[in-house]
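thread from #wetlab-drylab

HS: before we spend reagent money on co-crystallization trials with NAP, can we at least see a predicted complex? here's what I'd submit
DV: go for it
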Amino acid sequence: MGSMTTPLDRRRLGQSEASWSPIGLGTWQFSQGHGLIGRFWPTLTQDYITAIVKATVDGGISWFDTAEAYGRGQSERALAMALETLHVDVDTISIATKWWPLLRSSHHLQHSIGARLQALNQHPIALYQIHQPFARSSIESQMRAMASLLDHGLIKQAGVSNFTASQMVLAHRTLKSCGHALASNQVHYNLLHRNIESNGILANARELGISLIAYSPLAQGLLTGKFHQGTASPRGFRRWSPQFRPEVLRTTAPLIRAMQDLAERYEVEVSQVALNWVITSAGDTVFAIPGASSPKQAAANSKAMGWALTHDEWAMLSDLSTNFR
Ligand SMILES: NC(=O)c1ccc[n+]([C@@H]2O[C@H](COP(=O)([O-])OP(=O)(O)OC[C@H]3O[C@@H](n4cnc5c(N)ncnc54)[C@H](OP(=O)(O)O)[C@@H]3O)[C@@H](O)[C@H]2O)c1
């Protein structure tokens, strides 16, 4: 925890050889209105997506998080197209994607890898994650399928998402018995959602050398302060989210005020304070994947790296957010 970390430095993904920037770009926003999950965010044009990817790479972010579920592969396709348009050297960036397990078996996990690679225009899959724990096959069986993909060089690392501590440990142990290790668990983590600190996920991840990838690190924009300042109001599906109710804005106002003070001190934006809190929260264990709806946001979010809150500042924000809980 706190100021001794160096958040600009790349950090190791799990126990692998890969070292990634502490922040990656979340690309659910690239779904372009396809599929049910993909309708959550406004539709972005391919040119605009390419501009977001450019701002991301220019800002020193070295990896992207996507998924089959984001627009039924549309996010993967849009990302791959942007990288091609920008002539980004495939060796300089990494892509993490996810398999959607609901009503599917580990057989599907193994045999649909070609479709994922096709959606990514054959860009290597640096990290392949199981999107959530509900599948027709056991975790052991899914991990044996992952091990086979690793053995055949079809993916570089295996991860999970939304797994509980015990599911994560079981996934790790099964991969270990196949000669591999679990690289990561992608989980909901931000200043207002800190369950992983008390439910065993963070403790087990640290002990076993598993990286955690924090999704919704800005609480879908709430932790940018713009809704508190009244400079924005929630659009689309967020209008119905309990997180954006007036009483939540009221209760979280002291936290946002403290973040604004720190933002002024460091000459950064409130969003960068929120992201810095996440990536300095547990040494090198936690990565963050903010999504961006514009190139400006992507550029701003990359500036959450390269500096660190002091331990006291980190603890003060933690206290204020604990009070909220
Ligand atoms: N594994 C899972 O189950 C799971 C679940 C959720 C998300 N994810 C991943 O995590 C990524 C991020 O999570 P998320 O998209 O839910 O939430 P988030 O990163 O907390 O919030 C992203 C949204 O916040 C706003 N924003 C971002 N940067 C900003 C800035 N600098 N200033 C002002 N507003 C800013 C933008 O929306 P507006 O401009 O429209 O306000 C943006 O679309 C996703 O893209 C996805 O890759 C994974």
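DV: The domain at 11-222+269-308 is CATH 3.20.20.100 (TIM Barrel).
HS: ok that's useful, forwarding to the group
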